## 1
Amino acid sequence: MSSRERILGRVRRALGDGPRDDTPYEQAVPRDYLREHGTRSVAETVDLLAENLADYRAIVHRCTAADLAATIAGMLAARGAKTVLVPPGLEPEWLSATAAERIADRPESTPHELDGVDSVVTACAVAVAETGTIVLDGSADQGRRRITLVPDHHICVVRVPEQVVSSVPQALERLDPTRPLTWISGPSATSDIELDRVEGVHGPRTLEVVLVG
Amino acid sequence: MSGTFVGMPAFPKAAHEAVHDQTLRGNLRHATHTIRAKRAKAVAEVSDWAALREAGKLIKDHTLRHLDRYLVQLEESVTAAGGTVHWAADAVEANRIVADLVKATGESEVVKVKSMATQEIGLNEALEAEGIRAYETDLAELIVQLGKDRPSHILVPAIHRNRGEIRDIFRKEMSEWGRPAPEGLTDTPAELAEAARLHLREKFLRAKVGISGANFMVAETGTMVVVESEGNGRMCLTLPETLISVVGIEKIVPTWQDLEVFLQTLPRSSTAERMNPYTSMWTGTTDSETADGPQNFHLVLLDNGRTDTLADEVGRQALRCIRCSACLNVCPVYERAGGHAYGSVYPGPIGAILSPQLRGVTSEIDASLPYASSLCGACYEVCPVAIDIPEVLVHLRERVVEGGQVTAQGNKVVLKPAKGHAAERAAMRAARWAFSRPGALRAGQRLASRTRRLHPRSLPGPGKAWSGTRDLPTVPKEPFRDWWQRTNGGKDGGK
Amino acid sequence: MRVALFLTCVNDTLYPDTGRAVVKLLTRLGVEVDFPMGQTCCGQAHYNTGYRHEAEPLARHFSDVFGEYEAIVTPSGSCGAMVRELYPRMGERARAEGRGDTLAATLAPVVPKTYELTEFLVDVLGVTDVGAYYPHKVTYHPTCHGLRGLGLGDRPRRLLQAVKGLELAELPGADECCGFGGTFALKNSDVSAAMGADKVRNAESTGAEVLCAADNSCLMHIGGTMTRLRTGMRSVHIAEILASTEEEPTV
């Protein structure tokens, strides 16, 4: 007997103690929890996103679409970034003002090569106000997961208000599970020393979020 | 201190040392009290917590009730998405599968995301025996690995270490495993985190094989979810060419939508954050054009006592556990005994009900774990999936003292009552006999009252368990019922 | 209202003063109190130590003795929780063991009418000021089964706050278990004693003379630790404070 059959057989025997409830799943679990917490205007939801991002030590910038290229250029210059990773589908306009050298992510580039790049600029798929989270789904303007991981400085552009949702349930509704997803809430952190939170471990230690719109 | 839990003494004996270790007591008190207050605040932010908790419980119960169906569905989804599913009935089989998969890549080292399942099966030791070195990359796991120590907490395995001890371990041991600790390393948490970053970076960048667990597996989509903080998880999940995930069969949820419950309750319960810094979700492998992340994905579904636990209708609720460790952080016994006393990778209240079910109650340590609780109920109160831990503890005590039918490795067996409870059993029977007869109770009370002047304040022998640290109450000159009868319920006056 | 006092075996044997205080207090509030002489033990120690089957005859006996009363009042949070929470569970387990509904049906009548003392005062009698006088500084320890099992909430504190002359001091770490836990105190005496010592140190830090609680089992452990550590503090059951008046003060 294969282990697959063995385990499935054990499960069936273990559950043999009573009639199986065949209620359809949608009815078996009442979902009495909220779709979002509190009521806010669109502007207030964006403010909450900014507040919660900052609370977990992301640096938040707000600008108009017209100012975006200059804002990004300013952030890269302030950081002293000489090189910047660019996902294949990033709006070329966004990097039109920076002097940093653009590095394209290629399938054959090694982690070591990525490690030598100063910064990365991406868009995002959705942002969650209540938790201060941005979610990347690997679309062409966000690139492969590794490019937002290895460089030490990540600039993420959120189009507001259209990419902002209030809550986790609303975010999941917008996302496609078949895509590789990364949920990011602030720069990398750890609570492993005395259960106290310290920012900055393996992921980018500086996360800058630009709310544009 | 050895790196394994084999041959652990019973809980009271192991706890005895911990209780008198002032450094350990201080470390645990500081850490657990810090997180308790934060968790309470993070939970209070969410007005629908009770509804989320109830939904989480029902999702897990429903899944467990139909586990066979969801396992098959998950297997189909993962396979369709380009992954390969393996089934492991026990630890030996799981370790064998993983070792063979690693060997097939030709690699002799792997990087690991913190995973309870691989700790539980002793994967690192098994790989070591096959000539494969496994690098733990979670900061706390790294501290434990470098210190040749054992984990003492589910979320923060090095919770028993303070910052000074961690600095000493880094200074002494890092060079054995790779890049040494920076010169002049101090004990500030930021510097310690930086030292770990530098030490592990090289390993991440060159790794070809990553090994992980998973917090959730979505049956309908085949999506795996890993919740983490440091980015070591992302490194292991995305940079290597091959990813092997070892996951307990109870980690399934039926639908994508179910994540909306647990992604709200897990971070707030574990690290007391609105959301943890990083959550990775992947479904099989990506197409070769995108080539995002490992192009070889293996899922090893682990039983190792879970189906035995499932067979117990009271005890099976332990399989709802999402490993948040909130129960450890509020537990007054854990705070004083420390994690090592539980003799398992699963310490604290959840460990006290999980280990004796996964492993059985036949060893000394496992038979003692159900008693490692004052039944205060703080664990049940904070559990985000409403596991009634006190209920299961009492149920397992019953199994220890009465024996009875249990399932072990898929077979129904009849357990004998545990040894060492004979005197207690006799006392309980005698008490039941007396309490079933008010006259006998009264005779005993009167005897105690008449001899009250002879009672010592301290007791010899087994009674020392009480009177070693606490004075005995003085026996009154008459029991209440005698007073009641003598004074007609106080109506006849008199004291 | 005719009410049965379920004093508990521990109080009957070791703490008759608590029993007298409950009688005095309830009588003062116009309640007719009876003490059924057939009462013994609710079976909690058996049940919680793993001897559920030994606890069953005790539970049946409890139901026989108390079944006819309108209300059953007990000055013990843990024994109250035993009846209210665990008797129904014992019935369910017996059913799951294929022994039918007999046990559940036998125990069902006593479950809803069993009240812990402070609950009975506040919810049934609707009083918080019981006319008590107790000129001492007191700190209150909410015992686990009262707090988390029965959900007594702030009822005991509201009663204490209304006591004339009483100064109520907040107990740091009040919600934490004192470490008694029945047979836990013996089986894991090191941890139990460490928890007790921490509880006592927290109590001392309030500057109170008296620590009170609604359960003498916990107080036996806390009080025994207090005298062993020579703190000078005393442990007193809340009933004895509430029974105390200017005419007849409890010390």
## 2
Amino acid sequence: MVALQLGGAPAATLGEVKNRADLIIFWGSNPAESHPRHFTRYSGTAKGRMNPNGRKDRHVVVVDIRKTPSVKYSDEFIQIKPGNDYEVFTVMRMIANGHIPDTDMVGGIPLQTLIDLVERCKKARMGVLFFGQGITETKGKHQNSTAIYQFGKDMTKHSKFLTLPMRGHYNVVGSGNVMCWQTGYPFAVNFGKGYPRFNPGEFSVVDLLLRREPDVAVIVAAEPIDHLPYAAAKHLENIPTIVLDPRKTLTTKIAKVIIPVKHAGVSVEGTAYRMDHIPIKMQAVLESPWPKDDIPLSTIINRIKKIRSEEKKTDGGKAA
Amino acid sequence: MEIKGILNTARTLKQGSTMHISKDSPEYMKAIGYIGLCEQDMMSIEVSENDEVKLASETGELVMKVKKMELQEGSFFMPLSYLANRLVSAETHGTGVPSFKDTKVIISKL
């Protein structure tokens, strides 16, 4: 998200990828395990308007620090040293702009391999670089993604070229979209002063928990006890937590209050966003006795408002 | 006898599918409860597959079974989970994102 703000993004939908792309690069992404249907529906074997033969019409490259299960579905595997992505992308941008550095290896990759890869990107009918958390959760973080977006923009001088993040977790894109059009910011939004403020590192959940700032937590369809570093997540064990979830999780185990809710997209209809920001209408397919997430949340909000207004009346408007 | 390297935590198909059974299930525990090492690193600390090793980072310590994997020397692998997250630092360096793939770890034979 931050990289998107810094670098801009040449993007398109996955339908365009399926129909037009003849070069697919997965960088720090392992779709065989993280997005098992991506390859068959959009980026590998899927047949499209300009790719009538599916897999045969595409060249697939995997760049990773390890030989992931995705490698066996690729035409080319390039192994990079951990934490060297920014360096490699900087050199690829140099090559793209006609400067060849005086070295044989960059980030564990032979220079000639990078020259060949850049050439392949330039000549592609449509190239797509999908990048995953192997980029964003290692040394360099969002600056790696920024370098990728900038490389993508360089490539658009020569061919149609897209740089797309492999967003994970059901409807994480929806969360970012709604936050953006409601507050102007995609995540790490603080409403403490009565208006939205944005500052990753200060208002992001891991940082808040590590500093032990929250004295109560409402957790909706998230699993911080399993998914966050324990050094941060353990603070949740010491404060009151209200968890809204249709299932028993490690986080419901430490919750002070558990409110079972309908499973979004299974027992309640709504909209979920695909990783390419396409909103998908979801139908309810199973009955559930529990309420939708918004019912307990609005009940809590209304109750707080009522208590606040009663407090105001009793102290003559002195309380904030 | 110890080796130093970088721990990479990531999704695996088994981790992703067994977590929907239950996070208490033996299937999930089997899917998340190992440390992947390359053959050279296993030889350096003289361990075989399924031997237990001690992992230590700045944040925490764990004892895990060894699984042989195709990795670079000094690059270790664990499926993402609350176990791996005992080792991952919560420091985000102002980005909001922890370094799930960049944790310095020392592995020693038990």
